[in-house]
Specification:
By secondary structure, this protein is α/β, with parallel strands linked by helices. The protein has seven helices and five strands; from the N terminus they run αβαβαααββαβα. Helices cover 37% and strands 14% of the residues. A five-stranded mixed beta sheet has the order 1-5-2-4-3, covered by helices on one side. The longest helix is centred in the first third of the chain and has 14 residues.
């Protein structure tokens, strides 16, 4: 049964799965493995979202990098809108052109920020665009950028007991090991005959 049936809803529910954390912890690798896992399980179509300024989820998924939301934003900012076309129609067209279609999944890439770490405009575009697309995909997998300024703060990959300004009594949470999680997912995929 569909999860939505259990909740008494008529529409199928979209599951959004977001990777977040410090840089270099395996978010992109894990996102790619998860997309592959869902593909092999027939959980399609999937929308993969590369919201990392170091856009490389396309490489992990083996698809070319298309246009980006950041480029669309810059084109509009520069006034590269064709005569007779409204900005709304221009942006809608550019956003649709930015979707890379693959077998069983589509990919949207955020692209470059507006400035040092600023994704305000691109995030707004992505949010509005995803609201239009969300009902077309049962699964959305997002590879996010490194979150916030984590200097002096714990994160999911911080060791248990780590003392910081925000955790003076030590981190109480068990440390997440993204690579161990990715390897465990890969083990399940190999065990189930999903990976050659």
């Amino acid at each position: 049964r569909r999860f939505s049936d259990l909740k008494g809803m008529n529409e199928p529910m979209t599951f959004s799965i977001a990777m977040a954390g410090k840089g270099g912890t395996g978010k992109t690798t894990l996102a790619g493995l998860l997309v592959n896992y869902l593909l092999t399980r027939g959980k399609t179509p999937i929308l993969a979202v590369d919201a990392d300024c170091n856009s490389n989820l396309n490489e992990v998924l083996g698809v070319p990098l298309g246009d980006t939301l950041g480029n669309a934003r810059e084109d509009m900012r520069k006034g590269d809108v064709p005569d007779g076309m409204t900005k709304d129609v221009f942006m809608s067209t550019k956003l649709e052109q930015s979707v890379v279609e693959a077998d069983g999944f589509d990919l949207i890439v955020m692209g470059r920020p507006e400035g040092a770490g600023c994704y305000c405009g691109a995030n707004s575009l992505l949010t509005n665009f995803l609201e239009k697309l969300v009902n077309n995909y049962p699964y959305i997998v997002m590879d996010n950028e490194t979150y916030g300024l984590t200097t002096g703060q714990v994160s999911p990959t911080s060791e248990t007991g780590m003392v910081t300004k925000t955790t003076p009594h030590g981190n109480l949470e068990q440390m997440l090991n993204p690579m161990a999680l990715a390897l465990a997912m890969l083990h399940v995929m190999i065990r189930d005959g999903l990976v050659d």
